[in-house]
Amino acid sequence: MDAGAGGNAHELKRSEPMRLTVIAVGRLKDGPERELAERYRKRCNDLGRRLGLRAIELHEISESRAKEAAARVSAEAAAIAALIPDKAIVVALDEKGRSLDSAAFAAELGRWRDSAVPAVVFVIGGADGLSPDLRRKAGLTLAFGAATWPHQMVRVMLLEQLYRAATILAGHPYHRAG
């Protein structure tokens, strides 16, 4: 099926657009990372409306100030879990996750959308990572390669990949597979 046609056919079947949420531990300060993240978020939002995707919601969770790593991870996990809606697919960003190319990521997003999944929540942990409970709840654990990336860069890369996925689903020429 043509990716663009899938987006058009989808608009006729689904009454509610799929909710996309990014929950990130830590805050992006004003500067180039925030500007780039917002640029991709806006582009995805503009294109996504036509594809059955709601505007990306972004929640920044304050980093825990607990002295021990386990306590920090637990506190951050509780704050994250409070923001995950019922029936949402959770995607955990973790360097030990699966590496998907952009077309496969777009296909997964499109499959969830076409299966009437109400929401997909992307979770970016803090410096100590995500709790084992959150990882177990994840329908997908996603890596942007084997390297460990700062959460600011992961957020930018995730928002770019969401925009790229929307362009692939729309048949837009931004993504040049080769």
Report on this structure.
The chain is α/β, with parallel strands linked by helices and 178 residues long. The chain has one domain: Alpha/beta knot. It contains six helices and five strands. Strand 1, helix 2 (32-48) and strand 2 form a beta-alpha-beta unit. Helix 2 runs parallel beside helix 6 and helix 4 crosses helix 6 (151-170). It is globular, with a radius of gyration of 16 Å. The model is unreliable at 1-12 (pLDDT under 50).
End-to-end gap: 19 Å
What percent of residues are in strands? 15-25%
Task: Work out the radius of gyration.
Answer: 16 Å
CATH class: Alpha Beta
Overall tally of domains = 1
Q: Identify the CATH homologous superfamily.
A: SPOUT methyltransferase, trefoil knot domain
Low-confidence stretches: 1-12
Helix/strand class: alpha/beta
At a glance:
The protein is an alpha/beta fold. Helices cover 45% and strands 17% of the residues.
Topology diagram in text:
Blueprint: H1 3-13, E1 19-25, H2 32-48, E2 57-61, H3 69-81, E3 89-98, H4 102-114, E4 119-124, H5 132-137, E5 140-142, H6 151-170
Parallel strand pairs: 1-2, 1-4, 3-4, 3-5
Helix pairs in contact: 2-6, 4-6
What attributes characterize this protein structure?
single chain; 178 residues; alpha/beta; Alpha/beta knot; five-stranded parallel β-sheet; globular; disordered N terminus
